[in-house]
Structure formats: structure tokens, C-alpha cells
Design goal:
Layout lengths: L4 E3 L6 E4 L9 E6 L4 E6 L9 E3 L8 E4 L2 E6 L8 E2 L4 E2 L4
Organism: bioreactor metagenome
Protein name: (2R)-sulfolactate sulfo-lyase subunit alpha
Pfam family, one: SAF
């Protein structure tokens, strides 16, 4: 089975796409490294390799967790399976 995205820790709210060509509606398989588990769901957007995918619904103001670390805040609502990038997540630094 192909691994489409990788999640580092079970508490992370995002995974990282590790294959080319992820398209809206694709059924994806993700690997949670810590615990060696897999998760499956459908993507809601095309997502480029190296970009993030939401593992859960998030509201404006929620904290995004990757590698068990706060990487920013949600500035537009995000649904599970959506692309996370600069259009819906911003750093908390400024």
C-alpha cells in the first residue's frame, strides 16, 4: 500500500504529503510514525508534495501541531483532508 502522507506524532493535527500528484477526491493512506499506525481518508483539495494536509477539522484561532510542536494558528476554517498552507495558517511570531 502506498503511503501518501506522514504524521510524526499521534497528537499532530497535520501530515506532510510525500508523493506527487495528490488530487481532490483521492483516498489517501497516512503513516503515523510514533506508534506505527495508519490512517485513511479522502483529500478535499489537490495538494503538492511537501505540503500539509489537515488530520482534523480546525477553527479560526486553533493551534496547528506538527512534530508535536506549535507551528502556527488557523486564520480560515479548515476541514479534515484540506490543504494547509499560507492561505489558512499563519505564524504566531507576528
Amino acid at each position: 500500500m502506498v503511503t501518501h502522507f506522514v504524521v510524526h506524532e499521534p497528537g499532530d493535527s497535520v501530515g506532510v504529503i510525500v508523493v506527487e500528484g495528490v488530487k481532490k477526491g483521492d483516498k489517501l493512506n497516512g503513516w503515523v510514525m510514533d506508534g506505527n499506525q495508519s490512517i485513511d481518508f479522502e483529500t478535499l483539495n489537490d495538494i503538492p508534495i511537501g505540503h500539509k494536509i489537515a488530520l482534523k477539522d480546525m477553527a479560526v484561532g486553533d493551534t496547528v501541531i506538527k512534530y508535536g510542536t506549535d507551528i502556527g494558528k488557523v486564520v480560515q476554517p479548515i476541514k479534515r483532508g484540506e490543504h494547509l498552507h499560507v492561505h489558512n495558517v499563519k505564524t504566531k511570531r507576528w
